[in-house]
């Protein structure tokens, strides 16, 4: 079952974070495979909520662009440095790929081996050099272990192919020799007395007990095979470790987290046939061909608490949007096929999700009830915001019972925990809960923070004004505002870039509005601020 990512807007507030988690739980109960995610770090209020109800943070999702790891490339396709050339050939032939990455025991890339490298080695006629393991020799020549003292077999290959007397007179055997011999006891005796590295007895030949004793004493490895001399000699070079003919030049690797579009550009430029794929730790996962791009699939996503591209994940245009659940105005997102779009004029996305639990008759656990409750209390300012509806109030009463909390006491603690601005830069404060909107072909940026320490912002308002002007000019906004809301005073202080002055005066009916002006009774950006700005600008 394909994975589905559920996430809110780019600057996640408590409603957005908890909605992703509570909807994911519901969808998984209904048989889907979903994962809650956030598009940036979560705020202090959200951290307080998750810690209070002992729920882990959602995963961080930087974007929904298609990555190399999303493609159906050849995964788990590598060969170890101690594997044989024969094994590498077998794996390449099996999957129909003419190259294979070579890795060490920690899956670090050592190089790449190709069919061309194997063919080149075979036609070099350098059959005498052996760098293999005992196990690989047994496997390739279908051998049987007789005596074993070494795991690694390195040396010079010899074949006892002529007269015994001539061989013993003319050939000086050493400890670095690997000898292929038949049922020729005099040569075997000469070999074990010389202490050669390995004796390969072909044709299932027998070895005398007295020769075995000498071999044990001199630590001579012995393998028996049913192959004849020609067969054994012909394939013996394929016993060698792949590192003996390894190519480690002109290897271009890609990372599994690279965007597919970047890979396409790279492949078009370099024109390589294959690219080893590394994970975030630099370990090799397999190999990718340019043709594998044709099998890419879009990421499946469900959006909560927003429905515009400007507020959503990077690359959303290339994602497969399955569903949207939101309580804001209809935004800019369009789809090429019908989807489920649940949009209701309520105070919180979690209120809609609460109704979905009821409609699907799914039992709400304490933790999920606590998260839904937190999302509603946060977005409605503990049911005091003008966005609050009777549906929100009914949900809060029911969810607070399941979560076993007094919603007023808990809500005040939650908002207090999230209202601290200590340690935050002015940019972080502006973007803590920031949204941009397109109104009459102009972009407007509106940030809002909720705090009880208003002086902490107003005492440095000149620096905030400078920041707002900089953000507005560098991003070609009509204007940018920061609304500082104090729940205890039931109102909001406004700071704004220079070009906003005339619009704010007209929208709120204030003559000569000043920086830090207090807007009595204004607490909701969605219902009390954005609509009047839209009306005035349009």
Structural overview:
It is a single chain. The chain has 538 residues and is of the alpha/beta class. The chain has three domains: 183 residues, inorganic pyrophosphatase (n-terminal core), CATH 3.90.1640; 106 residues, CBS-domain (Roll); 112 residues, Diaminopimelate Epimerase, Chain A, domain 1. 36% of the residues lie in helices and 22% in strands. The chain has 19 helices and 24 strands. Strands 3-2-1-17-18-19 form a six-stranded parallel beta sheet. A hairpin with a 5-residue loop joins strand 15 and strand 16. Helix 7 runs parallel beside helix 8, helix 11 runs antiparallel to helix 12 and helix 18 packs across helix 19. The longest helix has 16 residues. The chain is elongated and about 120 Å long. The two termini are 46 Å apart. The model has no long low-confidence stretch (mean pLDDT 91).
Task: Describe, in short, the structure shown.
By secondary structure, this protein is of the alpha/beta class. Helix content is 36%, strand content 22%. The protein folds into three domains: 4-66 and 299-418, Alpha-Beta Complex (inorganic pyrophosphatase (n-terminal core)), CATH 3.90.1640; 69-122 and 244-295, Roll (CBS-domain); 426-537, Roll (Diaminopimelate Epimerase, Chain A, domain 1), CATH 3.10.310.20.
Layout of SSEs?
Blueprint lengths: L3 E4 L6 H16 L4 E5 L5 H9 L6 E2 L13 E2 L3 E2 L4 H11 L3 E5 L5 E6 H9 L5 E5 H7 L2 E5 L4 E8 L4 H7 L6 E5 L3 H10 L3 E4 L7 H10 L2 E5 L3 H8 L17 E2 L4 H11 L3 E5 L5 E6 L10 E5 L15 E7 L13 E4 L5 H11 L6 H14 L10 H14 L3 H12 L7 H5 L3 E6 L2 E9 L4 H4 L2 H14 L4 E8 L4 E6 L4 H8 L8 E4 L4 H13 L1
Parallel strand pairs: 1-2, 1-17, 2-3, 5-6, 10-11, 11-12, 12-13, 14-15, 17-18, 18-19, 21-22
Antiparallel strand pairs: 4-16, 6-7, 8-10, 9-13, 15-16, 20-21, 22-23, 23-24
Helix pairs in contact: 1-11, 1-12, 2-14, 7-8, 11-12, 12-13, 12-14, 18-19
